[in-house]
Batch of 2 targets.
Target 1
Amino acid sequence: MLMREEILFWLREKDPEKLKELWARADRLRAENVGDAVHFRGLIELSSFCRRNCLYCGIRASRPGLTRYRLTREEALSCVQKAVDFGYGTVVIQAGEDPGIDQNFITDLIREIKARSSLIITLSLGERKEEEWIAWKEAGADRYLLRFETSNQILYNAIHPKAPDTVWPNRLDLLRRLREIGYEIGSGVMIGIPGQSIDDLARDIELFQELDLDMIGCGPYLAHPDTPLGKIEQDPDLGKQYGLPATEDPVESSNEMAFKVIALARLVCPSANIPSTTAIATIDGKQGRTSGLSRGANVIMPNLTPMEYRALYEIYPHKAAALETAEQTHAIAIDQVKSIGRFPGSGPGGRKK
Ligand code: 5AD
């Protein structure tokens, strides 16, 4: 069990020479526990409609001027075919909390994917009804991703206005419920949210371990100028207005901080699947992605969404790979993995405890 002091020590360490020890420990644990294969999860951004109004997110319901899209069944299935053609073991079906996507649409999609392929299916569709989660599991879905975003409840509540028909659910309870239903569960946090402290982040990392997560996805918070939180740099008074906690010990939103969280996640959950995420690649392209893979990560999530829609799934600005085809994204990902002496994984790439 990693002690809180040790987590805090590394989160505060700035000396690149000392940090090499953390990177090396994480990389060694990664190699010992999950090997040198890098698993490719083909990401399908199914819909950019969302009923929520998270203060940081570029696809929040009341974002002005954003053209929304929802893939048809056939469009989604042609993305799935690319995953098969590229030899991927998993597809990740992600969307905003879109009421226009109903239970049956997803159930049918899951059945069709399972009938056509041996792909593992990961869902990332937000807070949906429990009966939907159960139906999708029964239809064949395997994994569910739901980031808890931050363990600081004051901060969480401030940046996640309630949906009209729900109370603030405790995402930790939701994750436990998803596991009971039978999913492998993934979660994670944003790094450097305004109002987030180093202590909060240390607690986040402890929670990865307490929840015994199968998958841990984390990335730097990236300010989106068309969101309420994205305007805070120009107008710090907004923090009070939004009810953000005041902190003396804020977390920097940087790739270095994200690498620390990835490395510490590997230390606390040695057998978890940990991606080098798109937000990291957005800050620093190839170097960002490969550094993540060398500091504890063993997964990447190449985007399979049709090019004409990618830029519209704009959760943050300048998202990596927004101007590429699935073929280009795939070729680049393969090169990156090979450039650090690793190789694409085969098969489902599930968590081996
Ligand atoms: N910066 C970084 N990450 C973001 N996400 C949403 N908006 C942003 C942003 N502005 C992340 C959230 C969500 C995931 C799909 O994208 O953590 O869970």
Note: Residues 224 and 316 are 5 Å apart (CA to CA).
Target 2
Amino acid sequence: MSDTPASALGDLSPEVFLRDYWQKKPLLIRQAFAGYESPLSPDELAGLALEEEVESRIILTHGKTPWELRQGPFGEDDFKTLPEQDWTLLVQAVDQFVPEVAELKSAFRFLPSWRIDDIMISYAAPGGSVGPHFDNYDVFLLQAHGRRRWKIGQHCTPESPLLAHPDLRILQDFEQQQEWVLEPGDMLYIPPGVAHYGIAEDECMTYSVGFRAPSHQEILLHFTDFLGQYLNDQDRYSDAGMPVPAHPAAIDDASIERLQGIVLELVQDKAALATWFGRFMTEPRYPEMLQAQEFESHLLQEELDNGYGLTRNPNARLAYREEGEEHVMLFATGEHCLLPATLLPQVQLICEQEYLEPETLLSWRQNPEAWTLLEQLLAKGDLLLEGEDE
Ligand code: SIN
Ligand code: CO
């Protein structure tokens, strides 16, 4: 088993990290995960890449073309024909399939949990690389096995020139500024837009803890889609009392200002924005892995009496928001539920603990609302009776 430290920042305080580095500049943390042992072996990672429901890719530096991309799922023979060096296998969202990998996320509690996207794992043969590139999101790169040389480059923009490649966004120019060799347990933080270029010194594995930040396009499109459901057909553009137009075909400023007024009033609905955002940020990556289940309520009592607790489904995303003095809004995998504020301590535990102890939960038996909430989350598949995910 691997040891997950309480915080991934080593000696650095979360306050200093957030003030000086987060979203600003790269940071190397030597032995952030001292003695870390990858819970997955390279063979097990390759095994995941054979599965239909897992997203995987192989990048060969000198393939049929430079930086050849092969898309998974792969067959066993695909691995047999790979060269000795200069290729990388990348498997997305491994935390959704392997609970031991999901545990790593608990070392990032100094950041909002709903900002974490997933954990991608790469295995590289010596010399393997995905090329110089930048990502649009923050990433922590944990060296889990072997050594990788990381070169850090310039701050990029959407205009930074890329190689003409049909699928990969590889930078045409890489202006190296720093270079480090990472050993197992070392971790590198890279903010969005900073060029980075990792090359395997020897056979190695890197875990990428990636963060999600919706684009402005996504925010506008998805929020207005959500808001639209609650609007009626009768509230319309209106121009009562307007002056006689000098030119009937002209769209004047006053008309645009009327429109602006409508849009601004609608987007100022903070409660609607919060509800949409909580739902959006907790949408599951693989909804098919979170199925509603037949759930018999006596099972919960029995399970707890037998000393078993409840675990979070690795595919579940949970968050909450306090709504004034009276309510707390729970967001669970893309849905929301308004609860009385008295349930706040229980909601916090459910959202923040990977495992809920039976002793804690048995004390909720006296609180029918808390008990019903547990039953609902079990029925929805967000929580699992211990052992169900094995
Ligand atoms: C890798 O693991 O090779 C690539 C990770 C990254 O650059 O984001
Ligand atoms: Co990257």
Note: The radius of gyration is 25 Å.
